[in-house]
Design brief:
With 201 residues, the protein is of the alpha/beta class. It contains 9 helices and 7 strands, in the order βαβαββββαβαααααα. Strand 4 and strand 5 form a beta hairpin.
Length: 201
């Protein structure tokens, strides 16, 4: 039997997944955890083969669970509503077995569970390409501070004072970000940063 842990805080998702998985002869629901803390407790006390993990949970990022030291088990499959390159990239870096959207057909979810339980990964070529792109575009700490300030609507002078940088340095940073991401203005930079979750890990 493949023992599965569901880590998700939405009752409808929990119920729907549990119902579908219980219908499979080779899969057993080992537990359901609505938070990162609850998942850690279950992982410490219950033997799990595969964990289906949501990214956004009430007490933090579900991706933080992947950084927990473990000896091969469980295999993690991210099951998220968000198809963001930085989430996929972090999942790849932390050793997840796959990344699926919650809109995926149940047959695809079941296939991913069985593949992960067998010790293989289920990342498609598109997701791996997205992960590579996210890593290439990953912001430095200084760039994140700058983008955060631009989103907040601060002027270059205000950003310079807050970060201890000269106005010319701020302009250089912005120019490089415009070029890197194909933006033509600070408003476009801010809009894309918010829409694409640049500041989220």
């Amino acid at each position: 039997m493949i023992r599965v842990l569901l880590v998700d805080d939405h009752p409808v998702v929990q119920g729907g997944l549990a119902l579908a998985l219980r219908a499979e002869p080779d899969i057993e629901i080992a537990g359901v955890a609505p938070t990162v803390a609850a998942a850690r407790e279950m992982l410490a006390s219950v033997e799990i083969d595969v964990a289906l993990l949501d990214v956004r949970l009430p007490d933090g990022s579900g991706l933080d669970l992947l950084a927990t030291p473990r000896s091969g088990r469980p295999a993690w499959i991210i099951l998220s509503s968000f198809d963001l390159p930085q989430y996929i990239a972090r999942a790849v870096r932390l050793g997840a077995a796959g990344y699926l959207l919650k809109t995926a057909p149940m047959a695809e979810v079941l296939g991913a569970i069985r593949t992960a339980a067998a010790g293989q990964v289920t990342f498609g070529a598109q997701h791996l390409a997205m992960a590579r792109m996210a890593d290439e575009r990953r912001l430095t700490v200084r760039e994140r501070d700058l983008v955060r300030a631009v989103i907040a609507g601060h002027t270059n002078d205000e950003i310079g004072m807050a970060l201890g940088l000269q106005r010319k340095t701020i302009e250089t940073y912005l120019s490089r970000l415009y070029q890197r991401f194909g933006c033509v203005s600070r408003s476009e930079l801010a809009a894309r940063a918010v829409a694409e979750g640049w500041l989220e890990e």
